[in-house]
Specification:
Layout lengths: L8 H26 L5 H34 L6
Helix pairs in contact: 1-2
Length: 79
């Protein structure tokens, strides 16, 4: 089985997360714009394909900031 080195885990996580989130968001947006038309899959795919390259670097840049924010907002377990 092909395995990726653990040092690439943050990038792989960002790639998968940004891909799935941009897929869902572009799907909802496309559905709202076109309705349930026969062209929906093609429009959705085009919207997703153009949004994923934007979402991936945004996730990579914002993830560390979001982790810091969450760490400040959460209490650490004691004991």
């Amino acid at each position: 089985m092909f395995r990726i080195s653990a040092r690439f885990a943050p990038f792989l996580f960002g790639l998968v997360l940004s891909g799935l989130m941009s897929l869902v968001v572009s799907g909802v947006s496309t559905l709202r714009t076109t309705g349930l038309s026969p062209d929906l899959p093609g429009h959705w795919f085009a919207a997703w394909l153009s949004s994923w390259p934007v979402a991936f670097p945004v996730v990579l840049v914002l993830a560390p900031l979001v982790r810091q924010l969450v760490a400040r907002l959460c209490t650490l377990p004691t004991g």
